Fold:
Amino acid sequence: MKLRKWIVTAAAAVVAMPLAIGSASAYELTIPSMDYRTGPYAPNGIPFANGWTDYWTMLNERDGGINGVKIKVVPCETAYNTKQGVECYEKTKNEGSGALVYQPLSTGITYQLIPKASVDKIPIHSMGYGRTSAANGKVFKWVFNFPATYWSQASALVKYIGEQEGGMDKLKGKKIYLVYHNSAYGKEPIRTLQELSKKHGFTYQGLAVDHPGQEQKATWLKIRREKPDWILMWGWGVMNQVAIKEAASIRFPMDRFIGVWWSGSENDVKPAGEAAKGYLSGAFHQPGSNFPVHKDIVKHVYDAGKATDPAFKDRVGEVLYNRGLVAAMWASEAIRKAMEIHNTKELTGAMMRDGYEALDVDEARLKELGAEGLTIPVKITCENHEGPRKVAVQQWDGRQWKIVSDFYEPDMDVIQPLIDEDSQKFAKENNITPRDCK
Amino acid sequence: MFYRESGQFKTGYAADQAVFPILQDRWGVLLMLIIGFVGVPLVIDDYWANAVFIPFLAYSLAALGLNILTGYCGQLSLGTGGFLAVGAYSSYKLMTGFPELDMILVLLGAGAITALVGLLFGLPSLRIKGFYLAVATLAAQFFLIWLFYKVPWFYNYNATGQITVPPREALGFLVTTQKADIVVRYLFILSIVTVFAIAAKNMVRGRIGRSWMAIRDMDIAAELIGIRPFATKLSAFAVSSFFIGVAGALIFSVWLGAAESGETFGIIESFLVLFMIIIGGLGSVLGSFLGAAFIVLMPIGVKNVLVDWFGFTAVFAKHVEITTFGVLIIFFLIVEPHGLARLWQIIKEKMRLWPFPH
Amino acid sequence: MNVMTKPTITEDHRTIGDVQMEVKNITLRFGGVTAIHNTSFNIRHGEIRAIIGPNGAGKTSMLNVINGFYHPQEGTITFKGEERRDMRPHIAATQGIARTFQNVALFKGMTTLDNIMTGRSLKMKKNIFWQILYEGPAKMEEIENRKFVETIIDFLEIQHIRRMPVGKLPYGLQKRVELGRALAMEPELLLLDEPMAGMNVEEKEDMSRFIIDINEEFGTTIALIEHDMGVVMDLSDRVVVLDHGELIADGTPDEVQKNQDVIDAYLGVAHD
Amino acid sequence: MLFFLETVISGLLAGVMYSLVALGFVLIFKASGVFNFAQGVLALFAALTLVGLLSGTTPFTHVDNPALAMPAWAAIPATILVMVLIAVLVERFILRHLVNQDQIILFMSMVGLAYVLEGAGDIIWGSDVKVIDLGLPQGAWDWLLDSHGLYIEKIELVAAGVAGALVIVLAIFFQKTRIGRALRAVADDHQAALSVGISLRTIWIIVWSVAGVVALVTGVMWGAKSGIQFSLSLIALKALPVLILGGFESIPGAIVGGLIIGVGEKLAEVYGGEVIVALFGRWIEIDPGIFTATENWFAYVLALVFLLFRPQGLFGEKIIERV
Structure:
């Protein structure tokens, strides 16, 4: 074994691909950053990656890390491509003292990493994306998808629609259409919506748009003809911008057009300009940069010249930026919890997982973090990896996004059976015995 | 000096027709096989296996398949990604439909199904040629990807259309999923690729290979000596698709473990595999391997050098990598349009004569 | 016109047999242009038959009709006793008609050896599974055919270029390789389209020698198109003369040479 | 019926957008036999450059500096200048070295070029979604929608107009100017072009520059619909079925082919589901949404089927093979 290790090191050095220039110096918390700042989805990847990275940099600069331990962010460019994502994972997982958590940022990459995570003992936080049934912590020990899944979101958005219509019973006979990206991601809400349509008696119809979605005239002609009452959209990349423009062109009322939270960023509405006014989308955090934490970031990161993307300064606080920031914030809290549980400052992936499972960020803690009201309180348990399951609706007012509704809870009567079914299927296929969460 | 054929006399046509008529070549190949089967497993780790060796081998097989169609038979195809997807999805259906089936049979089955699909999409080659055919194969690419999203039967009606590999064994060894030992997975894919490479070499040096090349070089003349163009083209489509289908099954089951049709087997795959055979060498088995090595290793190499050595930011390095990729492709096309395999041949010629230049 | 119909022994002791191919009333049109008009002639076993005529007379089109590449609008082709509306390339190939081309149609990316081996395609029957295995039946078949090909290589004296890609060979050698590929088919009827075009005197002599040897040693019937009248007159037993797609003369070299129509055609006298 | 008309009109107008992309391909293929796969990226690059100049973005740092912003009358010629520069570079560093190579080699070099331009575009101008503001009209044509209930997008009418004008300008250029005639000669015979007294290299540069201008127009028109971003480069894939339908060398083919593809795929997407349900719905339960997202492949299949019946394309002549 020793020989093999030695040969590995030698080979790595000789073939000129330094995998791990292991700094033998002080322990650092290794946080990989699966960026996608290139490729067709770069416009969405850049703000998220900046939010994620800036928060860690801010912790280092302001507090000297977490409990005195410095954080090392290891960026790796995936270009939103599954294969490059796998390469990134393999490259960064042993970096330094070992990666602590992965935020894969793509449904495709998440599916790749789920089986790897349990073998390599590194937790995955697919925040609001990825495999929905991973909410079942009994089966998916290493995967977390709080604060809410696509299924929960679909249900919450239908609740919002019901409220707007004057009650869930008013949904009967209404038409709700789903315009979705023809991919695994886009198909996520279909089953939930089908179940809900049975329950509430509305008509559901899915209209797929193929990647990349530059041309969707026919889809919108259909919508113009069939006049649905509401449209939900699971879109991604250029598809969002084109869809919003087309909707505006056929004069579909924007305040009856709701996107998933990946279809609700500044990028998506800007090309449509004024016409996008009133467009809605799901959200689990506030946009904007008026929170103390943002001020700290600008002060300690941008003004101190420590930012990876200095040109981004004016855009701090964009929807996707805040999403990256919130993700990093929860991860940092999981680190604190893990250190507390295991009473050590040198964490491993396995300890980090325990930290995530014990995560409890309430209002008070949010305030301490300088993020009061930025997002919802999160509490994770062994069996529930989805946490709070709360979704609000935000609206574009022509200049910025604003949350315009309460946070809705999904209809778990419909969703829980779906989660159980899917996770049990996974457990059976992969010979996993569900944990006992007592 | 050491690469000479003087003193090696062939005593029969059998010896003259051997794959590697020159002794040193035989030793070279043997050495490569020993390194591949014995040396690499000693040092391989997750990164090298998952990011370098397994993708390299899987893509070599795909490149080999495309090279049969494009390099040997002259039919330009941009549908490789779609055929890889057929291989992946049919292996998934076989694995979940017949859980007892040995992985080797699953691979062969996936190859056979892909061959049938390849035959179907090869039919237009009866009437259209060149770029027109290439663009027509794009129809296969887009249609197949769409089909695997749209028809739930292909992904066993699960919620999203993602397929995930179940644990399966080949000859009693677990070869799929993350639980399989990485060395076993590597050796499995290496064995499969070796067998297919030998099969390819045997085909291209025999009658069928000559028929393909005859069609490529001048289909009219070939027809007049009794080679039926349509049947020959179709056989190239079938064999090529078989190889690509097995490669797709391997990419899904042994390498990635999960796949989504458009995401994993998109149009970009078609171009990458085409790059491999053009940079490696059209109409060369060795070239398929060299090209796959180049295309798989180049981006990783550039990335590691730029990020780890020169401290570029990941994003800038990625942009530079994309640009460099393009520049290198153009550079290679200009310097040696016949690919790395030809370059290697020229080096060998030089060595044969060394130290006398003429 | 004196058309021979019975088996005859020529001065050089070759046997010229029955009619092997009968071309009857062939008319070939492309759109509005008539390339061949109502032309009939025959080719007999073992003879050397020349097809001559000025440029654009329809000679190459005639060969294309004979081996099935063009499909005439009218007429029939009888080969080996079977009468056909038109010929098909693969039928021509399987029944023993081989051919060379005006502008060498070799497989440029392949070596001399492989080019000639393609000529054996129809003789090799082992299916793809044997070929994948290679060792065993496929190898035996390969070696057997290789032996045959080597005799052709020896016959044509091209041993030294065996392993060279044909694209790089000089023109004269390419023509020879092409002849070799046709011979590898063991044809009964060999069609040669200007086998000596672009050759110097020495090369022409070599080629003439090969043609005579093929005819004498293998007994192969040969139909050739050639512009060099000296060669045609020396080699051929009988000559067909085409002009503007019409047959204007058919007979022995001597007869044809004296024919007034032929003289006019070659001198470019206007038709009326 | 009105809806059917609407679908057809939308299809025609979308078709014009496809034609616009196909036009760039045809120009280059006609003059140099190069299948320019980089045309889509060229459109992206041109549009990025224009936006960069309009908003005064500093190259490489991606910081907007309003003080450096150019007005449109200066930015458009400047962008054209950049496209000419690219033409010169392409000739100097690629085409010149690949004369007389196989078409597939030239094709792959163009894919290589696409990578180079993609990387360069990102490095120079950044990869955010950019909004182009040339005062192009947005939304539906209100009068038509209000009084007749017919929905047509203004931007697409403008695009159709621009495309039409572009074709007329190109036609005049090819028919009436000396260079244009030389370009046509080159398409037939390289030697002939030399005898006209214009070097092949000059011709390549000119034709690439013209294709660059077409790319700029394409980029602006498509960019107005979706914002300017990387995905713009993928419109090249939309042009390919148009090309096989219309032929690689025919400008009228590109136009008519584009229209056919546009109408065909709109009708398929809108009515395909209904047709399938009507045909097979009796026997099996079919989700009427099954036939959505077909726009990526339907055009290819349409072109393919067409090609099987008419291998020479729309305006091609039947080729008689000779040996």
